[in-house]
Specification:
273 residues, mainly beta, 14% helix, globular
Length: 273
């Protein structure tokens, strides 16, 4: 189940970066709390139930963007056994696109499970990711590899010019295997005021106000890099708001899918750079 957590963390880090580019002129730094629930379960799944919460924070650091994400989930198997997983992810991506620092840690029932720490750089000589955890690991990246935020700038350009499909190679920093071919399908704009944003729990004024903004449905599929005819490792569907907030998200692993629904939203101050 650790792959599930890394998938959730990596996919949402990419999703948030999509958000960063999508509303660069109007983007509001924010902190969002999501409730996580089981969306669908298929016959081959060993998971009988799951629940959890996620805090996702995006901050403009003037010379770059920082993402901080914490996820807690509880899984129940068909046999009734329980697993408590915790995941944390943080990153900094420079606005010039040359530097991407990342840290991902996970726990299973309170015990350390995985840890990945490193820096990815890109220059004239190419791109490379160097890990300090695990020690001395290195991943040579294809020259055309994008880091998450830059990837989403490309997607936004496509959305604004009417493109409906964009495919790129992206390194997310959530593991030694976090280099993916990512395909994104961008749907038709949802006009402001036409559709409320689902929320978990009591009404939140900031979430209710999202209905006054334009938004777009986005679906993304993550394929392992350089594996012909491979099935996607996971797929994600979410609603992108024009102020940079990601609405309800569904992450599909094939034999089951989970849903993250906004529960609280805090708009953070814009920095004076």
């Amino acid at each position: 189940m650790s792959v599930v957590g890394r998938g959730l963390t990596g996919a949402l880090a990419l999703a948030l970066s999509w958000v960063v580019g999508a509303a660069a002129a109007e983007l509001r730094p924010h902190r969002a709390l999501y409730g996580i629930e089981l969306a669908t379960m298929r016959g081959s799944s060993d998971i009988n139930a799951l629940s959890g919460r996620m805090v996702l924070e995006w901050v403009d650091a003037c010379d770059g963007w920082t993402v901080n994400q914490k996820v807690r989930m509880q899984f129940t198997s068909r046999e009734g056994s329980e697993l408590h997983n915790e995941f944390s992810f943080s990153s900094f991506e420079s606005k010039n696109g040359d530097n991407f620092r990342f840290t991902m840690r996970s726990l299973a029932n309170g015990n350390p499970l995985e840890e990945f720490v490193g820096v990815a750089t890109r220059g004239r000589a190419g791109a490379v990711a160097r890990f300090t955890e695990p020690p001395d690991e290195k991943l040579v990246l294809p020259r055309d590899t994008l880091f998450p935020t830059e990837h989403l700038f490309v997607l936004v350009e496509g959305a604004l010019t009417g493109e409906t499909w964009v495919g790129k190679t992206v390194f997310s920093g959530t593991g030694l295997d976090s280099l993916h071919e990512v395909t994104a399908f961008i749907g038709k704009e949802i006009p402001a005021g036409s559709k409320p944003v689902p929320m978990a729990g009591e009404g939140d004024e900031e979430i209710v106000a999202l209905a006054d903004l334009r938004s777009w449905p986005v679906s993304m599929a993550y394929f392992p890099y350089d594996q012909q005819d491979a099935e996607p490792e996971f797929e994600m569907v979410y609603r992108l708001m024009e102020n940079g907030v990601a609405g309800v998200l569904t992450l599909d692993y094939g034999d089951f899918a989970m849903r993250a629904i906004l529960a609280r939203l805090e708009i953070l101050p814009v920095p004076d750079c």
